Amino acid sequence: MRERLERYFEFAELKTNWQTEILAGATTFVTMAYIIFVNPAILADAGMPPAAVTAATCLSAAVGSLLIGIWARYPIAQAPGMGLNAYFAYAVCQGMGVAWQTALGAVFLSGVAFLALTACGLRRLIVESIPRSLYAAVATGIGLFIAFIGLRNAGIVVSSPATAVTLGDLRSPETLLAMAGLLLIAVLLARNLKAAILAGIIATTIAGAAAGVVKWSPQPYSAEAITETFLKLDIRGALSLGLLEIVFVFLFVDLFDNLGTLVAVGKRARLFGDDGRIPRLNRILMADAVATTAGSLAGTSTVVNYIESAAGVAAGGRSGVTAITAGLLFLAALFVAPAMGVIPPAATAPALVIVGALMLGHAAEIRWDEPLESVPAFLTLITIPLTFSIANGIAFGLISWTLLQCFSGRARQVHPLVYLLTALLIARFAYLGGE
Predict the structure, then answer these.
(1) Residue 45 DSSP symbol
(2) Which residues have a Cβ under 8 Å from the Cβ of 188 and sit 6 or more positions away?
(3) How far apart are CA 78 and CA 281, in angstroms?
(4) What is the mean pLDDT of residues 294-302?
(5) What's the per-residue H, E or C state across 134-175?
(6) pLDDT band, very low/low/confident/very high, at 340 (cuts 50, 70, 90)
(7) Distance set, CA 331 to CA 45, 51, 70 (Å)
(8) In whole angstroms, what is the distance from residue 373 CA to residue 141 CA?
(9) Distance from CA of residue 258 to its chain's centroid?
(10) Pick from 9, 24, 397, 427: CA 20 to 30 A from residue 330's CA?
(11) Considering the chain, what is the average pLDDT of its residues?
């Protein structure tokens, strides 16, 4: 049985083993476990019961991660997406006055639309029509994005009304803890310890607890609370004409955020084929669509591939066992969710900075002396962190790439679907302005 599983997950081809994969899955889970608490806090502002959303978050993350691990066999974990949950709560429910039940119906419809687009092969065509020169730019841009999030969570970088961002208070206990964790993980990596990132997170958490920096205040919680949101979505209300824009936004951002994550993690794990194609792509896309649909039924916003999966890949994860491990841990968290709150942002922030640094190596794959490639690549990688959106970065890169091809006499070399995507992206910016 064990040998059969190892053949199924291609351990020999990927040069991996059970210990490495399980440690990588645990690393991914610990790095993204914050979503168990952040997602309910955001959706509570939409009027949703926090305990129910906590359970729905764990359940949807478990379903998505297990599905992509078992069926698609990729080391990518899934959970309700940051950004989309804020759009759900603040733009849709608070800004437009839409009931959360109706907003869940819009998420469900976007998931069904994803299923339909995937089944007919259109999502695969979209992914495969993206110029290969932008893949490295997306991976690099997401590396900058991850590092920026890590620096912000560590308190090393803070917002500033004068300069947008500035240096934080380096004397803050949380910031000092994060910097110590950053140094520890870097040293462990330099010593070639496979579990360097996970060990660094755990050691930093323990050090924070000993120093009194970690504050744990568990709230009353029961997995049965999910009954307050389970199957409470209003699909009929979401079908009204006024909400079609909302469905489109969920669909658009989910498509390009997931594309960016897939490219970044796939390149880091070296899972692409020799021709640049992504093996079992349709299974990955289908798993994402099913997870979003299941999440809306459980009571949470759109489920996406998590870029924190790159932390597991950096720890050696290469197969679906990494995602399965993360999924099982999310399933366990469904019953003991408050216990996850002991891991402070200061412990996970260093891991994000390190992973971001490791991903910058993809910049070497870009031909910087070729303007047709370097300009769209630069716009892609710089826009992702500065607009805090993977989707915006891909949009800027794709639009600039298409326009440069046209104005340099290479219009016939552009795939027709790329023209369609470019037109939709321009129309999206013209209509919505920004996210």
Answers:
(1) G
(2) 196, 199, 200
(3) 16
(4) 87
(5) HHHHHHHHHHHHHHHHHHHHHCCEEEECCCEEEECCCCCHHH
(6) low
(7) 25, 15, 15
(8) 15
(9) 7
(10) 9
(11) 81
pLDDT tens figures, 358-397: 778 778 878 898 999 899 999 988 998 888 777 788 889 8
What tokens were used for 307? Answer: 């870029």
* Phi/psi-derived region of residue 70, left when phi > 0, alpha when psi is between -120 and 50, beta in every other case: alpha
Residue 87 tokens read as 């759009």
Nearest to 22 by CA among 305, 312, 347, 337: 312
Higher pLDDT, 408 or 389: 408
Tokens of 412: 């016939």
Name every residue whose Cβ is closer than 8 Å to that of residue 431 and which is 6 or more positions away in sequence: none
Q: What is the 3-state secondary structure (H, E, C) of the chain?
A: CHHHHHHHCCHHHHCCCHHHHHHHHHHHHHHHCCHHHHHHHHHHHHCCCHHHHHHHHHHHHHHHHHHHHHHHCCCCCEEECCCHHHHHHHHHHHHCCCCHHHHHHHHHHHHHHHHHHHHCCHHHHHHHHCCCHHHHHHHHHHHHHHHHHHHHHHCCEEEECCCEEEECCCCCHHHHHHHHHHHHHHHHHHCCCCCHHHHHHHHHHHHHHHCCCCCCCCCCCCHHHHHHCCCCCCHHHHCCHHHHHHHHHHHHHHHHHHHHHHHHHHHHCCCCCCCCCCCCHHHHHHHHHHHHHHHHHHCCCCEEECCCHHHHHHCCCCCHHHHHHHHHHHHHHHHHHHHHHHCCHHHHHHHHHHHHHHHHHHHHHCCCCCHHHHHHHHHHHHHHHHHCCHHHHHHHHHHHHHHHHHHCCCHHHCCHHHHHHHHHHHHHHHHHCCC
The pTM of the whole model exceeds 0.70 = yes
Closest by CA position to 265, among listed 284, 283, 282, 250: 284
18-47 per-position pLDDT tens digit: 999 999 999 899 888 878 877 887 788 788
| Sign of the Cα pseudo-torsion (269, 25, 62, 41, in order) | negative
Pair 42, 85: CB distance under 8 Å: yes
Characterise 135 by phi-psi region: left (phi > 0), alpha (psi -120 to 50), beta (else). Answer: alpha
204, 208, 213, 217 alpha-carbon torsion, rounded to 10° = 90
**Tens digits of residue pLDDT in 221-233:** 566 677 888 888 8
Residue 305 contacts residue 288 (beta carbons within 8 Å): yes
